[in-house]
Design goal:
Helices cover 50% and strands 0% of the residues. The protein has 187 residues and is mainly alpha-helical. Helix 5 crosses helix 6.
Length: 187
């Protein structure tokens, strides 16, 4: 999709599959010209003093920061538990998305679960603030409708793009899978 939008095709690039642990060294050592991976790699490279640029897939394919995926049978049989889970997740995201809470939450998480990052708490908190709280967890939709809102029109846009490129081969209506599960019509 990105290539086509820029007048190229898949034939204009050479694609190499590289293991996750080798993706950054492959770029740094100029084995490849670009990598396609999590934007967190940009922070990793910049922290090593390497000048990098990035483009985000949102420029050509809408993405969504947090999605809970369950099968229809599971949803039908466990709706009250799923609603409780979603409320807890939304409350947690609302708390941790506030910059004033991120540093404390990061420190607690590092102390309890990832002590090897103890000396990097400020660095990790800065990533959490800019990438997660500032980009992945929040959007115009969350600002307007709160956490847990499922934008059916945006999901349909994603479906339509995937159908155009043959990723989805059968007709799909986003209303069939963006399902409200709470009284405030959040999904």
């Amino acid at each position: 999709m990105l290539l086509e939008q820029n007048g190229l095709s898949i034939k204009d690039v050479k694609i190499e599959v590289i293991g996750t642990e080798a993706i950054v060294p492959a770029l740094v050592n100029k084995r490849v010209d670009a990598i396609c991976f999590s934007m967190l790699r940009t922070f990793e490279l910049k922290s090593q003093g390497i000048a990098v640029d990035e483009f985000r897939s949102d420029a050509f394919l809408p993405s969504f920061g947090n999605v809970l995926v369950v099968g229809k049978n599971f949803l039908d049989q466990n709706k009250p538990q799923i609603q409780k889970f979603v409320r807890a997740l939304n409350k947690s995201l609302q708390y941790v998305s506030k910059p004033e809470n991120i540093k404390e939450a990061t420190k607690i998480t590092i102390d309890k679960y990832t002590p090897t990052y103890k000396d990097q708490a400020d660095y990790v908190a800065s990533i959490m603030t800019s990438v997660y709280a500032g980009y992945l967890w929040t959007s115009e939709d969350t600002q307007k409708n709160g956490f847990g809102y499922g934008n059916v029109d945006r999901w349909q846009q994603t479906v339509n793009i995937m159908q155009k490129f043959g990723i989805i081969t059968k007709p799909v209506n986003a209303k069939d899978f963006v399902i409200p599960i709470s009284s405030n019509n959040h999904t």
